[in-house]
Structure formats: C-alpha cells, structure tokens
Structure to design on (334 residues):
C-alpha cells in the first residue's frame, strides 16, 4: 500500500555532479526520511550538467522507487526551489589553479545570492537549507542573507564529513568500532583550519583522552589527518570525495530531521550568536542537538581548554576573513 503521508520535497543543486549523483538515489530509496515517507525531487543543474541530468532522471525512472512521487529536472531556480522542504546546495564553482580565495568567494557568492533569493521566493517558509558547495560556511551565510522570509536558523553548512572522518580515525587508533565513538565536535570552518575536538569526544562511554593516552598523536597526527583528509583522498583517487561527502550530507539531513539520541550530538555549522565566545554572524561548526519538535539547539557548557581555545580562534579568524572578502567581492555587508 502506498504511504498516505505528504511527500517531503528535496531540491538538489549540482544534481548531476559527483556528490549529487551519489546522494539523490539514496534520498529516493527512503534511506534518509524512512521507509514510509514519500519524497519528491527537484533536481537543479547548469550548462552541460543539464544534459547529464536527463540521464540521471532516466536512471531514477529505471529504479521504480516506491517512495518517489515526483521528479522535476530544471535549470530554472524558481522552478527548482518551488515548494521545497529541504534544499541541498551542492553545486558550486571549484577553485581553479591560480584563483585567489577572494575570487572564488566572489564567483560563488553571486551563485549563492541568486539561490538564496530564489529559495526565499519559492520554497516553503519552513524550508531547511544545507550548503555543501565550497567554501560552504561562507556560501551558506550569503544564501541566508539573501533568502528573505526564511528563518536564519534554517541554514546549515556541512561539517559532517569531517565529523565522520574524525570518528573513524579515533576508532582505528583505539581499536574500537566507529559506532562507539561519540560526542565529536568539529568547531568552525569546513577547511584545513577546522578543529576536530578530541577533548570532548568519547569512546565507549569514556573520555577519548583516557582511552587514547598518546597526547602527541592526538595533537600532532589526529588533527592534521582530519584537516587534510580531503586532500589525501584527491591525491589517491584523482578526484575529490564524493560518496563519503554525499553520505555525510544525508547524515546531516537525517540528524536534523530526527531527534538526537540522548547524550550525543552532531556537528553542523549554524549562524553564531556569540556562543562559546565566537563572533556573531558567521556560520560556525558547533555541537548540535535536534529536539523532538524538530528545532535544534547548540550544546552549551562544554569545557574548552587552552589548547582547544587556540585552535578555535584560528578557524574563527579564517571565517571572519572569508566574510570580509566575500562582502568586499559582492559589495554588501554580510
Ligand atoms: P562536481 O564538479 O562533480 O559537480 C558539481 C555539479 O554542480 C556540476 O554538475 C555542475 O554542473 C553543477 N553546478 C555548478 N554550478 C551550479 C549552479 N550554480 N547551480 C546548479 N548546479 C551547478 O563536484 P562535486 O564533487 O559534486 O562537489 C560539489 C561541491 O561540494 C564542491 O564545491 C566541493 O568543493 C564541495 N565539497 C564539500 C564538502 C564538504 O564537506 N562541505 C566535501 C566534498 C566536496 O569537496
């Protein structure tokens, strides 16, 4: 019997790209919202991606997914974000050789300004927006500032891939399974300045620092391994993380849709209002708990030692620079 629930409509930009392709079939299969929740997909592409998207739509048809009620494939943002409950903003222009970060922020800034405006005009007022396309924290800030009528707490930037990478590294080092590694915060930016916080992490219910007593490894190997994991994957694969990035995007959506299990949290970047002393007005990676009513809160009161504080400062400084550079490139005050 088909479910009588109203479908959840998910808009995905860059839908024919590597991450998009790895994500949308799992959304359609029920792997994100559950086995009795119908879904509809609005797939958005540009340029040559639009042609590839025709093939993706054929493949979706060929899956005959029982939960998939509707597929819209378009290059038009108004059509693409129409009635969306969720927007996964994956498509972005990659940094090319010789391109300054400021140039990249300017180019992507224009894209995320347009997408934010179209989301404000067309999506449901309750829409939640997850930005994956890099530089994702600042792109999300630009989309948030451009989307009139959508609450600012509905904008997120993805740090979940970093969280998953960090958990996996701690599990390997401690000889445990990654499912028992919990309470991992990725503070700050999804970039090489991010701080994967081992001081608050737990392994099998114990402090990670009591299980892994090699403090030099935690400070000098673990942190850079997580920070530079994306580059290591590119080096090995000849292409950037795609399946693991799609998986992390879907983990993020699931973690924001369903209540967080007691005693744990998940990492995602949200608009800072000064929590943990961070400058307000940047999308900053925090520990988040999703409540039963679907709203979320930042976990408060975690101890931040001097080492952690110095790492958090570095990533905050980078995000403030990104905000200033994007503001300058776009000619607006973000
Ligand atoms: P691909 O180049 O494979 O795909 C990007 C797709 O987006 C292309 O099909 C392109 O036509 C489309 N596109 C570009 N501009 C668009 C626009 N304005 N509207 C709609 N579609 C548009 O890249 P992929 O490997 O899928 O990566 C996508 C983005 O994810 C990149 O910006 C990448 O840097 C970022 N990542 C973010 C991660 C994170 O943890 N936040 C990790 C993985 C990844 O590096």
């Amino acid at each position: 019997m088909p479910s009588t629930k109203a479908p959840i409509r998910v808009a995905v930009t860059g839908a024919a790209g590597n991450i998009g392709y790895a994500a949308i079939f799992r959304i359609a299969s029920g792997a994100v919202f559950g086995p009795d929740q119908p879904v509809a997909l609005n797939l958005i592409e540009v340029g040559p991606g639009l042609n590839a998207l025709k093939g993706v739509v054929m493949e979706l048809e060929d899956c005959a997914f029982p939960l998939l009620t509707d597929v819209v494939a378009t290059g038009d943002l108004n059509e693409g974000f129409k009635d969306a409950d969720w927007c996964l903003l994956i498509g972005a222009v990659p940094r090319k050789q010789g391109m300054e970060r400021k140039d990249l922020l300017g180019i992507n800034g224009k894209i995320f300004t347009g997408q934010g405006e179209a989301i404000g005009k067309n999506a449901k007022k309750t829409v939640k927006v997850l930005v994956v396309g890099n530089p994702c924290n600042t792109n999300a800030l630009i989309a948030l500032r451009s989307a009139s009528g959508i609450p600012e707490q509905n904008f997120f930037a993805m740090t979940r891939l970093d969280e998953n990478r960090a958990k996996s590294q701690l599990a390997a080092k401690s000889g445990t399974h990654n499912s028992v590694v919990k309470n991992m915060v990725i503070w700050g930016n999804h970039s090489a300045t991010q701080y994967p916080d081992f001081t608050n992490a737990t392994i099998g219910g114990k402090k990670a620092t009591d299980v892994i007593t090699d403090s030099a490894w935690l400070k000098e190997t673990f942190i850079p391994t997580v920070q530079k994991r994306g580059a290591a994957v590119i080096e090995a694969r000849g292409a950037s993380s795609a399946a693991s990035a799609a998986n992390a995007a879907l983990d993020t959506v699931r973690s924001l849709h369903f209540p967080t299990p007691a005693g744990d949290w998940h990492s995602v970047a949200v608009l800072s209002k000064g929590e943990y002393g961070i400058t307000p007005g940047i999308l900053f990676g925090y520990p988040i708990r999703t409540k039963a009513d679907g709203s979320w809160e930042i976990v408060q009161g975690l101890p931040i030692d001097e080492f952690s504080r110095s790492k958090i400062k570095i990533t905050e400084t980078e995000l403030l620079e990104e905000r200033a550079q994007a503001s300058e490139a776009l000619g607006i005050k973000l």
Summary: Residues 13-14, 16-20, 44-47, 49, 90-94, 111, 132-134, 136, 158, 161, 190, 240-242, 245 surround NAX (CB under 6 Å). The radius of gyration is 19 Å. DSSP finds eleven helices and 14 strands in the chain. The CA atoms of residues 128 and 291 lie 15 Å apart.
